[in-house]
Amino acid sequence: MTTVTVDRGELRARLRRAGDALPDASIGTVPILWTNAHDAKRWGATTILDEIVRLGYEGIQLGANFPTGASLRDELAARELRLAEVYVPLPATPDGPTAEAIDVARACLAQLHDAGGDVLCVAVDGSGDRDVVAGGADSEAAPSFSDAGWEALADLLHLIADEAAALGHPAVFHPHAATYVETLDEIDRLVDSTDPARVGICLDTGHHLVAGGDPVGAIRSLGDRTRHVHLKDVDPEVLAGLRDGAYKGHSDAVRHGLFTELGAGALDLDNVLASLAARAYDGWLMVEQDRSLGPPSESAAIGRRVLAASLRRLGSDRRMRTVA
């Protein structure tokens, strides 16, 4: 594939103009869109990084098969990109995180720190027993953490957060469909059982919608605990099919387009951003789409430009109210 040379400064200036809302937030994207593509073998790490730069993003989540440590730091610096986050999937059973979970977390923290990254984004890893009930996991029949499992998770999150803080990195927890922390009640329990000074929350708007929640309301209720954001949109028809049993589970629904381009689904993007702006959010806005039905770079480009338009619209509305 031929690499397209772009003027990074000019492109980013066009996408982030004076007067846009959330001027202190940074905008990144998640490489899973390419690594989960129908033609995934085509997309090596170097090609994905070049595409992310070409589309005007400022940062990335660490992707599968990416270089690590100094090699990744050098690759990012050459493209004026930042490592926004490393995602930590904690293996778990209903009894809580497994014995291997702390080693997984420490390996991911080392990757983040060695590459000069920012946020450690921790989640419970997906499991087959929760995949099949995703979107309806609030039923009594759904497998869930025991009380001891919840206590073990909270203790582990505090340990991880403390180790991350010692290295200068914030730690956030990411509620996620098809895991033991998906439903609104599970999110509430996670929030209530962890120290807000140590463990922030990554609000993934798509997974919150799958759980039956309102991302705008979540931002308001979580307040300053929302320290990292994944902007993800959901196709309402596919979501309805997931809840009605038309798909085998969350993974099957994702393959059929559960997560769609930003602006094309059920997400109230403008009000999500307005709620973040109301509290002067200055963290990362990570545009994410787990899989696209078309070319991944087209979906990533749509997401970046829809976000730019929404930030510009929100900024203009605020200026007009000020003038009035």
What's the structural blueprint in terms of helices and strands?
Elements: H1 8-15, E1 26-29, H2 32-35, H3 45-54, E2 59-61, H4 69-78, E3 82-90, E4 92-93, E5 96-97, H5 101-114, E6 119-124, H6 128-131, H7 147-166, E7 171-173, H8 184-193, E8 200-204, H9 205-210, H10 215-222, E9 226-231, E10 233-234, H11 236-244, H12 250-255, E11 259-260, H13 269-278, E12 284-287, H14 296-323
Parallel strand pairs: 1-2, 1-12, 2-3, 3-6, 6-7, 7-8, 8-9, 9-12
Antiparallel strand pairs: 4-5, 10-11
Write up this protein:
The protein has 324 residues and is an alpha/beta fold. The chain is globular. It has helices at 8-15, 32-35, 45-54, 69-78, 101-114, 128-131, 147-166, 184-193, 205-210, 215-222, 236-244, 250-255, 269-278, 296-323; strands spanning 26-29, 59-61, 82-90, 92-93, 96-97, 119-124, 171-173, 200-204, 226-231, 233-234, 259-260, 284-287. Helix 8 links the parallel strand 7 and strand 8. The mean pLDDT is 95. The protein has a single domain (27-323), classed as Divalent-metal-dependent TIM barrel enzymes (TIM Barrel). The protein has 14 helices and twelve strands.
CATH architecture: Alpha-Beta Barrel
* Strand percent estimate: 5-15%
Strand order of the largest sheet: 1-2-3-6-7-8-9-12
Broad structural category: alpha/beta
Number of domains: 1
CATH 4th-level superfamily: Divalent-metal-dependent TIM barrel enzymes
Concise description?
The protein has 324 residues and is an alpha/beta fold. Helices cover 45% and strands 15% of the residues. The protein starts with 7 loop residues before the first helix and ends with a helix.
